[in-house]
Amino acid sequence: MLEILSFMFFTGGGLVMLFIAAFATTWAQRIAALVGAIGYGLLGFMMVERMSVDIKRKTSDKNFLMVMTLGSFLINYYALSSYLKNYFVPLLLVGPGLLLGLWIYFKAK
Q: Nearest 5°: phi and psi at 32?
């Protein structure tokens, strides 16, 4: 259930970031939104892959997911906060993905 929720949040966040990349006003916003969308999309599909694997997961896989979650969150937060010129709303939009990434990381320990 946790993996399904995280898949929905990550792919939904990736689609939002593609929207931001399409309508951003500066190149820095567009590049950050595009990189963040790719990161969230990859995270979403990695969650689906985690659901289908019956083998015990390696700690390196878990650590990679955590680094990718943090990196994508920071890039997406920058792109959204610079596009919206607000610092609170981006937390509401990309924060659930970060919380789910942290939850998966600490649950797997």
A: -65, -40
Report whether 35 contacts 75 (CB < 8 A).
yes
Q: Are 73 and 101 in contact (CB under 8 A)?
A: yes
pLDDT digits (tens, 9 = 90+) for 71-101: 999 999 999 999 999 999 999 888 888 898 8
Q: Token match 């985690």: residue? A: 50
Structure tokens at 12: 């939904």
Note the pTM of the prediction, 2 decimals. Answer: 0.84
Instruction: Say which amino acid occupies 50.
Output: R
Instruction: Give the burial class of 10: count Cβ atoms within 10 A of its Cβ; 0-12 exposed, 13-18 middle, 19 or more buried.
Output: buried
Radius of gyration of the chain (CA): 14
Looking at 1-109, list the stretches that DSSP marks H as alpha helix, in order from N- to C-terminal side: 2-23, 27-52, 59-84, 89-108
Task: Please give the Cα distance from 43 to 71 (Å, whole number).
Answer: 11
Contact 38, 97 (CB under 8 A): no
